[in-house]
Amino acid sequence: MDVPVVLQLSVASAFNGLTKQEKLYAHYMAKAAWRGTRIILRQVSPEANGILDFILALYRSCKGDWERLATTANIAPEELEKFLDYAALFLSNNGNYFGSGDQKFVPDISKEYLTKLASSHSPARKLLAHILDEMYQMPPHGLGSPSPLYQTTYYLGDDCLGSQDDISSISKLMEDQSLHPENTRLHRYQESGFDCYDILQASVDESTVTFNNNGQPWLSNKIIRLVRGDHEQELEQICKCLRRASKYASNPAQKQVLQYTMDSFLLGDLELYRSAQKIWVTDKAPSVETVLGFVEPYRDPLGVRAEFEGIVGIPDPIATERLKKLASVADTFVSKLPWVDGDANGKGPFERDIFDPPEFSSAHILAYCSSNIFPGINLPNYNDIRQEVGYKNIIFSNRMVAEKARTRGLHMVSESEQEKYRNHRFHSYYIWVVLHEILGHGTGKFLAEVSEDRYNFDPRNPPLNPLTGSPVDCWYGVGQTWTGVFGDLATTVDECRAELVGAYLIDEPGILALFGYTEESDIKPGDLIYNMYLQLGVDGLRGLANYDPVTQNWGQAHSRAHYAIFRHLLRDSDDLYAVYCDHQTRKLTVQVDRRNTLQKGKPSLGRMLLKLHIYRCTADISNCREFYEALSNVDDEALRWREVVVDHKDPPLAFCQANTYLHGQDVKLKEYEPTTRGVIQSWAEREIL
């Protein structure tokens, strides 16, 4: 296990600028976010909650004086450090699998020394006995469809995903019952000779409904039940925090969001949560921004069930102002995307005629309870809400500092270019992320039958498919969603398309000037653009670290997307890129022909982007799968590249986040040293129940 780089998500200056009421609101919302920890751990692995209990028990046994504990246990300081590295990584990833990549990590400290470390504290010793073997057990190597090498807690019981016909029929049954999958898990078992499936729904309410399966012939000899009450204790605690937060909400919209969210958590009804999301989008420029619920489906092998997350951020007015300026002129740049007609009648059939500028803010993270802390987000994750009501973009400024502090993949850049790459990378990366969020996730029109015999296009005279020149012959049916149709490909294709949009538009002078990059600035537009295309090569190769050659599975949606983009550029940009691999020196280098960066690179990105966009807009999963799986296939040459990439893999990050606490009638903020000890202390003082 690599030693983590610990970074502090500093938020004190932003928090101190809040009013007393806003601080109280932020405090209770942060408490609600952290109360979701055990839900996430339960979604990660069977042993994860036990590992958390063990780490916290060990901390309390010595009150954070780890050296004293090591001396008492008679273990060397370097062995103690190995445990602290593991504990900080576990806490920062909310589990014993990396949030980015989904690979399992195990302690470097031996079982013997870890047992000695816990020997003087009876509660810790007992907790360790229950999870010791699972902590070190390999396989499973990662998260994914259940197999000898992978595990998931989204699908429980023997061979839960063994029958594709069963799974498809259950999905259809849930669709007929208006049950959204995001807050569910599935459990398969045998009872009285029958094959049974329980749909476990997250809720405080505990009740069971047995379905009549007559409408699904494949399920006629099976028992299908909806079992409410999954994560019941955690959701009840979250609702208590939300009720307290509601007293300090700044406006009626925030109160409504909290009420609908609580009702959804109490009853398990995601239509109530969707109602909350629609109102959340309309809450413009809040002094405290929040996200809470079952949000991201990255870790579900089928791509439809979502991990819980809780986020509380404090917007930065100065940085937000620049993002708002971009949002206000973003429609100009939508018109430059490859599927937009740009005629007087609108933008064509595959884009909304009017781009409604989203709420776009830069915020400092106060609390980010998730397995992966992203630099930016675009929510809600319901495309119908995005298209009909709107969406929000948030860039997390104190998370972005982490990207500024390290230059990932520097070893893949020619030595003569490394200094310039190091100096320019963050600047192009920041704009890439911004464009990814606002225009990558914020553009496009899904052709759909909105309700029975009501379409958002003319099905008798369907638009021409620019890829074939013929009328489109597929679209979304009533009740169908992007994730439901595209399943396991939905998240990675969505992220790939968003990354392509950001890279495709990064040369626009109006965008670069907005961020201060002109021919008069220290960093010139040409340097920034070149760096972007170099990053596409570096990140494409880096993505191979999250590919498992044994199972041929990708562990991270973004990594697969980056590799697919680079593979397309290698095949389609007329030798713009070159990759040099020296196995003797374990050196891998990617080079870009700077003279032809835009002439060859941008058209190639446009061709890939157009295909993914049309497939996405028309629900064309068949052609999308053929195209994308071919691009993300890892051949023998790429496997050789992967060996070198893994040898030079960047050290993992661990984030040290602040806590808030009540001091009389006031809310105080406590930040911690950016060390493994600081990470552990912050979690020990977080009051995880």
Automatic annotation (TrEMBL):
Compartments, record wording: Cytoplasm
Q: Which domain of life is it from?
A: Eukaryota
Q: What is its EC number?
A: 3.4.14.4
Sorted alphabetically, which InterPro entries does this protein's record hold? Dipeptidyl-peptase3, Peptidase_M49
Q: Which cofactor does it need?
A: Zn(2+)
Keywords recorded for this protein, A-Z: Aminopeptidase, Cytoplasm, Hydrolase, Metal-binding, Metalloprotease, Protease, Zinc
**According to the UniProt record, what class of enzyme is this?**
hydrolase
UniProt KW Metal-binding keyword: yes
Per the annotation, how and in what number is the cofactor bound? Binds 1 zinc ion per subunit.
Catalytic activity, as annotated? Release of an N-terminal dipeptide from a peptide comprising four or more residues, with broad specificity. Also acts on dipeptidyl 2-naphthylamides
Q: What is its main location?
A: cytoplasm
So what family is this one in? Belongs to the peptidase M49 family.
> Could you identify this protein by its name?
Dipeptidyl peptidase 3
- What organism, scientifically named, is this protein from? Aspergillus lucknowensis
